[in-house]
Amino acid sequence: MSQDVFVRNHVKIIGQGERTMILAHGFGCDQNMWRFIVPFFENQFRIVLFDYVGSGRSVLSAYRNERYNTLHGYVEDVLEICEALNIKQAVFVGHSVSSMIGLLASIRKPEYFERLVMIGPSPCYLNDLPNYYGGFEKNDIVALLDMMEMNFVGWASYLAPIVMHNADRQELAQELEESFCATDPNITRRFAEVTFFSDHRADLGQALVPALILQCSEDSIAPREVGEYLHRHLGNSTIQFMQAKGHYPHLSHPEETTQFIKQYLSVS
């Protein structure tokens, strides 16, 4: 089974360290999005890179609607990779929706994880006022999904510069747009639906593994109120407010991202 997992999720292992770091990409992305972060950690960690089924160079034929109709299917991807590699006490770095995937995985198998690092996390994207501000109304998400279905390329072109939010670096938005367009439209739309309609606020109290929350400024996907809510409700968590704007600081501001992670992990 382990070899199947390596192929299915296009698993790569690099680095020289004794500790393990798992880098988990976000929606519409793949493991290449970590390329600016990897050099800062490969001397201290064994780094595990992978693509979720349906993303990057994963085996698309392994995608099953019944498995991936909630985030728990992606949790299974993570846990099966950990099992195949006999991972214990890893640092899990998750971007965006992968933050919650990592948290759910750590609830299932806390022995696999030493720390969680959450970049732009959100336990729930929908507003539930007056008690919770997630940043989106249901109509916003429905409109986004409709756009994906009617004009996938147009959706990617529209969304990428908004969420990247670094107007002076158009190449980053272009890369993100190309990443979106490289995915299977049907699978990507389904992943978007699963992501944006997920609500894991009730799971936060079950988490035991310490976590770092990296909260970007002017993040249209995970606004500051979301990061603050997560910090209040997630025991043993630390929050760092970044100067980096947008939702992809590991691409736009890798030095600042790395600085906070290293500070949290106490590595040079």
TrEMBL record:
InterPro entries: AB_hydrolase_1 (IPR000073), AB_hydrolase_fold (IPR029058)
SUPFAM superfamilies registered for this protein in UniProt: alpha/beta-Hydrolases
Domain spans labelled AB hydrolase-1: 22-257
Gene Ontology molecular function terms on file: hydrolase activity
Pfam families: Abhydrolase_6
Hydrolase listed as a keyword: yes
Presence of keyword Hydrolase: yes
Superkingdom assignment: Bacteria
Keyword entries, A-Z: Hydrolase
Protein family membership: Belongs to the AB hydrolase superfamily.
Protein name: Alpha/beta hydrolase
